[in-house]
Recover the amino acids of this structure.
């Protein structure tokens, strides 16, 4: 089955971020949290440093309407530095203004609100923010109730 998902890279706090998102959305992870220690060892490579073994290699969390967030830790020592930027937003379109407000306030806690929820010229209820982990979100609700 085809699906759309969003993949997020973190600098060592993937599990903390995904536990937060799990609490907000009230959903469960798709399968176990895969750790770097779970990857098969390549005998041509040196052993994985202990401090990397418990980092998240892959995690999945369904959020709304079949959309899945996926994530990984990107340790600098493995040549995968995280470069935070504004090149990605997750856009949520809840069915009601009440759900839009709940998600907006829960996800933006500890983050930076760029545009508070408000009625927009295109007729929808919209707001955007960057959460406490540096992830950019937009919420848009076309419902008037």
């Amino acid at each position: 089955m085809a699906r759309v998902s969003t993949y997020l890279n973190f600098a060592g706090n993937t599990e903390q971020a995904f536990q937060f998102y799990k609490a907000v959305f009230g959903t469960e992870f798709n399968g176990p949290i895969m750790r770097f220690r779970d990857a098969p060892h390549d005998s041509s490579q040196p052993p994985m440093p202990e401090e990397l073994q418990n980092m998240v290699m892959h995690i999945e969390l369904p959020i709304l309407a079949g959309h899945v967030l996926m994530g990984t830790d990107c340790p600098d020592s493995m040549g995968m530095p995280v470069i935070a930027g504004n090149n990605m937003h997750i856009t949520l379109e809840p069915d009601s203004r009440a759900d839009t407000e709940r998600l907006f306030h829960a996800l933006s806690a500890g983050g930076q609100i760029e545009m508070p929820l408000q009625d927009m010229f295109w007729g929808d209820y919209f707001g955007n923010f960057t959460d406490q982990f540096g992830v950019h979100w937009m919420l848009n609700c076309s419902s008037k109730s």
